[in-house]
Design a protein that fits this description.
- By secondary structure, the protein is α+β, with helices and mostly antiparallel strands.
- The strands form two sheets. It has a five-stranded antiparallel sheet. Strands 4-5-8 form a three-stranded antiparallel sheet.
- β6 and β7 form a beta hairpin.
- The structure holds zinc ion.
């Protein structure tokens, strides 16, 4: 696995709609290597919650949600859900349902747009259809931060950055350990 540099705003790959991954290639060495490099890269960034393939320079419809977010969500539940979840890998994702309820979510940021944060109008719940890293089709409903991340990452795959739709954008000095 290789830890890669994050592509920053201004790079054409972030403004270009990404290509679908052919289903027969999901389990190929090339795509599996990209996924493992993305995991390594996301893992190395302490405040990273999601990462889209264009952010490592690959114009492909793949994004990850960090296990940090998933395990945090599990801890808030009382029922018996297994912990130590792995990163969620979403290939060729499509949001198939948006809640009519939307909210201006505060503090949205992006690893490619350091260190700006702003408010973005997002649906509070969505359903995402995608292929997992084994090539199996999945549908997952989400609320809270997960719904928020799904929308942010799908925007990346369409060549859009949060900063283009955010209001009240602020630049916040990074903490010492995040620099
Ligand atoms: Zn982002």
């Amino acid at each position: 696995m290789t830890r890669l540099d994050i592509v920053e705003k201004g790079a054409p790959v972030l403004e270009t709609p990404a290509q679908a991954v052919p289903l027969s290639e999901i389990t190929s060495t090339r795509i599996q290597k990209i996924i493992s490099d993305m995991k390594e890269t996301l893992d190395s960034i302490s405040d990273g919650v999601g990462l889209a393939a264009p952010q490592i320079g690959e114009s492909l419809r793949i994004f990850l949600v960090s296990k940090r977010v998933l395990n945090r969500a599990v801890k808030h539940k009382k029922d018996d859900v297994p912990e130590n979840l792995e990163d969620l890998v979403c290939i060729n994702p499509t949001i198939i349902k948006y809640s009519k309820t939307k909210k201006w979510l505060e503090g949205e940021g992006c690893l490619s747009v350091r260190w700006y944060y702003g408010k973005v109008l997002r649906s509070t719940h969505v359903s995402l259809e995608y292929y997992d890293e084994k090539g199996k089709k999945q549908v997952r409903g989400a609320g809270g931060i997960l719904a928020h991340i799904f929308q942010h990452e799908c925007d990346h795959l369409d060549g859009q950055l949060f900063i283009d739709k955010a209001i009240d954008v602020e630049w916040l000095e990074p903490k010492e350990d995040e620099k």
